Amino acid sequence: MTPVPERVGATPVPERPSTGSGTAKRVEGPTPRSSNIDRAMRWNERVMRAAHPIAYPALGLLRRPVQRVPRLGVVVRDAELLRAVLMDTERFTKTGPGSPADLWTPVLGPRVLLNMEGEEHLALRRKLGPLFSPATVNALVADHLGGALEGLAVRLRSGETVDLLTEAKRNASRVIASLVGLAPDAVDEALFDRVSSVTRSVRLQRPRLSERDAAAAREILAGLAVHARAAYAGDESTVPGRMRALGLSEDEAMGAVGAFVLTGTETIVAFLPRMVAILLDSVWMARLREDRGLAEAAIAEALRVTTPSPVMLRSVAAPAAIGRLPVEPGERVVLATFAANGALGPFDPEGNPAASLKQLWFGAGVHFCLGAPLAMAQVRATLDALLSVDGLRVVSRRPSRGVLIPSYASLRISASPDAGAVP
């Protein structure tokens, strides 16, 4: 599919209120018009539909907060009900039929947080937690991305056109390789493509990977294991080293490395270009240059309207009810997080409806995403670098088709020739 060039004259123009004398009145940053927000949301919709041309519109047709869908499971679209399911790990589990364990245990093994519950899960999470503390991940991102992001800003200010997807892949590779003890070039673009070739085979109506896909995933991870096994024998600054110190076996540590590579790279690589596209389309990037105090709300709103992991899965472990709908053990629960988040309306950092969701896009309760602080550190650092460049615009873009995580296949951006840096 050919990248879509941005139409000449289509660059969103901030609307400033008139003083009545023909002179624009100074306000605190550009005021995004509703047409700019609409444009941003239309492109966001195109990315979702390109990734899931059947499942996304089909789930969008559902109107009840919770309902049973043949061949799919019990679909939950309401944020309050969705959170209640996530918090109730006694009756809704990640390890039963149709749950994440069905997908990932054949690839990663039985003890990688993604497919664990109970005291064993909590114990492992507590032990790995210090690796993902804000102080630790902020230092990690500064050390491994600081120079690269500064270089990105310099290239943009010099007039270079940059594919943000390529940049996001490189930067995610640097961070995840350091975290799990891999060589800096071990997680390269070819690996991203191989991982995507496996994850794109996951379908809502197919609760597990085929044996062929599972074997392909195991082969990918085996290629990473050489470096990760060396890290396992080393100090505790990496995930494998810490797991060895905690008494986990080498095979269990390799499973954890696989989980971080599979789940800790594709989502951040998908989100960053989508966030930047929304900020540029809606004119909020220019607004944030004037008022950095709105950056956190803008990031939260971008996470809300994109929901990098659109769906979460659970299995019913004991008789229960979701809202007014009774459910039985063995039933599959499809948590349509994208629908629950999107129900609060379009991108709106000023109103910030995301605040009421308490980061639902990262999950809730004991399964709240362990890597969320690392993801947020990368997002903030990338946004800070881009905010140092004036006049950014989208040159062309191309949504990815048939992928598990909705994303752009390419998002090329550049700065106006006379753009400068923020003082």
Question: What do you see in this structure?
Answer:
By secondary structure, the protein is an alpha+beta fold. It contains 16 helices and eleven strands. The strands form three sheets. It has a five-stranded mixed β-sheet, covered by helices on one side. The protein has a four-stranded antiparallel β-sheet with strand order 1-10-11-5. Strands 7-8 form a two-stranded antiparallel sheet. A hairpin with a 2-residue loop joins strand 7 and strand 8 (325-327). The longest helix is centred in the middle third of the chain and has 24 residues, at 134-157.
Short description:
With 423 residues, the chain is α+β, with helices and mostly antiparallel strands. It is 49% helix and 11% strand. The strands form three sheets. A five-stranded mixed sheet has the order 2-3-9-6-4, with helices on one face. A four-stranded antiparallel sheet has the order 1-10-11-5.
How many beta-strand segments?
11
**Integer-rounded radius of gyration:** 22 Å
- What is the mean predicted local confidence, pLDDT? 86
SSE class: alpha+beta
- Silhouette: globular
**Portion in strands:** 5-15%
Distance between the termini: 40 Å
Report the helical percentage.
Answer: 40-55%
Number of helices: 16
Residue windows where pLDDT falls under 50 for at least 5 positions = 7-29, 419-423
Regarding quaternary structure, what we see is single chain
Describe the sheet with the most strands: 5 strands, mixed
Main sheet strand line-up: 2-3-9-6-4
- Order of SSEs: EHHEEHEHHHEHHHHHHHHEEEEHHEE
